[in-house]
Amino acid sequence: MDHTVKKTTRPPYGLLAVLMVGAFITFLNNTLLNVALPSIMTDLHVNTATVQWLSTVFMLVSGIMIPTTAFLIQKYSVRHLFLAAMGLFTIGTIIGGIAHIFPLLLAARVVQAAGAAIMMPVLMNVMLVSFPIEKRGTAMGVFGLIIMFAPAIGPTLSGWIVEHYSWRMLFMFIAPISLLIFLIGFFLLKDKKEKVDIRLDLLSVVLSSLGFGGLLYGFSSAGNAGWGSPQVYLSLMIGVITLTLFILRQSKLEEPMLSFAVFKFPSFTLASIIIMILNMALFSGFLMLPIYAQAIRGISPMDTGLMLLPGAVLNAFLSPITGRLFDKYGGRVLAVIGLTITTVATYFFSQLTFETSYTSLIVLHALRMLGMALIFMPVSTNGLNELPTRFYPHGTAMNNTLNQVSGAIGTALLVTIMTIRTESASVRLLTEAAGQQTAGVQQHIAMQAMLEGINFAFLVATFITAGALVLSFFMKRATQAEDKSGRPSATESRAKLAEN
C-alpha cells in the first residue's frame, strides 16, 4: 500500500519541466524590450510617452487577465491552458517581429501579455497541487530560479542584441523558441480533466477588468501625467468603484471568478500585505538606479545592464537554496533576515553621490537582491500553504494580481516623490546660485536636484521596507487549513494529477 501511495503521489516532473521552460521564455520577454525603447522611438517615429505604452500595456493586460485564471484553472486542463498561453505568446511575438507601425507593435504586446498572464498562475497552481507542504519550499525555490533568472539576463541580452542588430531581432530571436516549446507541449502534455460545470460570470469579468485595469492605468499614468490629471484621478475613481462592486459580487456568487475568501486565512493575508509593501519598495531600485546611472553618471545602457546583472543572477540562484531553508526553518526567520538586509541596503542607496563608485553600486544592488531572495518565495509560499486545496487557483491569481497593482502603485508613488523633491531642490539651488547661473552651473544644479530626488525616493523606500520588516515578526509557520467543503484533499489531487 505504501508503495502505491508513493507511486501515485510522485510529482509530474515532465509536466513541470515543460511548464517551466514555457514560463522562462514568457518571463524573459518582460525585460527584453526596455533597453530597446530608444531604438523603437527612432525607427517608428514616436515620443517617450508613447513608446512607454509597450511596457504599460503589458502590465495592464496582465492585471486584467490574471483574475480570470482562477476560473480557467478550474475549468480547463493544464494542457489546454498551456497551449493557449504559448500559442497567444508565439502569435504576438511573430507580429511584433514584423510590425512596421507602432499600433501593430502595441497590438503584438497585448497578445503576448494575454499569453504570459495565463502561464504563471497555471505553473504555480500545478506546483502547489504536486508537492506536499513539507517539500513545497524547495519546489517553489526552483520556480523562483526560473522567474528571477529570466528577467535578470533580459536587459543584458537585449543590450547586446540592440547594439549589434535591429530591435526586431528581440522578437525574431524568441519566436522560433516559443514555437518549439508550443510543439513540445502539444505532443508531450497529456493530462486530462473531468468536465467541470462552472460558467464564467461575464459581469464579474467586466467589473474586474474595469477595476484592476482602472487602478493600474491610473497609477501607471501618474508618474508622467501627474496626480492632478483627469486621466489619472478618473481612472482611479472608476477602478475603486468597479473593484468594490466586483468584490461585493464575488461574495454573493456560489462559484466566484476570484474568491476574496482567501483573506479569511491570516497567514495568507499577512503574506499578501508584506509582498505588496515590498513590491512597492522594490521598484525604487529597478527604476531609480538606472536613472541615476545613465542620467547623472553617464553610464551606458549596456554597462547599466551589466551593473544590475550580478545582483539579479545572485537572487535567481539563491532561490532553490532559500526554498530548502524554508522547508527546514520556516518563513519568518528568512523574512526577518532578508528584510533587514534589504532595508539596510536601500538606506545606503539613499546616500548616493556624484562620486559613488561603479563597484559600490554593483555590491549594494547585489546585497539588496540577496535580501529579496530570502523574502519573496518564502513569504508567499508560507501564505499559500495555509489555503485549502480548492483555494489554490484563487490564491495564486490573487497573489499575481496584487503584485501587478502594488508594482504600479510603487512606481507611481516613487516617481512622484522623486519629481516633487527634484523640483523643490532645483528651486532652492537656483535661488542660492543667483547671479551665477551660467549654462554649466544650471546643468550642475539640474543634476544635483535630480540626485536629491533619487536619494529621497530611496529614503522613503527604506521606511516602506522597514514597515514590512516589522510585520514579518508576526509570521507563523502555516499549516493547511481544514477544507470543510467536501472537495478532494491535496493528497488526492496530487495522486490524480500524477495518474494523468
Automatic annotation (TrEMBL):
PANTHER family: MAJOR FACILITATOR SUPERFAMILY MULTIDRUG TRANSPORTER MFSC
Database matches in Gene3D superfamilies: MFS general substrate transporter like domains, Multidrug resistance protein D
Membrane topology, record value: Multi-pass membrane protein
Compartments, record wording: Cell membrane
Keywords: Cell membrane, Membrane, Transmembrane, Transmembrane helix, Transport
MF annotations from Gene Ontology: transmembrane transporter activity
Record-stated family: Belongs to the major facilitator superfamily. EmrB family.
A single GO cellular-component term on record: plasma membrane
Gene source species: Bacillus benzoevorans
Cell membrane is among the record's keywords: yes
Positions of the Major facilitator superfamily (MFS) profile domain: 15-480
Protein name from the UniProt record: EmrB/QacA subfamily drug resistance transporter
Keyword Cell membrane: yes
Primary site of residence: membrane
Transmembrane segments annotated in the record for this chain: 12-33, 53-73, 80-102, 114-133, 140-161, 167-188, 200-219, 231-248, 268-293, 305-326, 333-350, 362-380, 401-420, 456-475
Pfam short name (any one): MFS_1
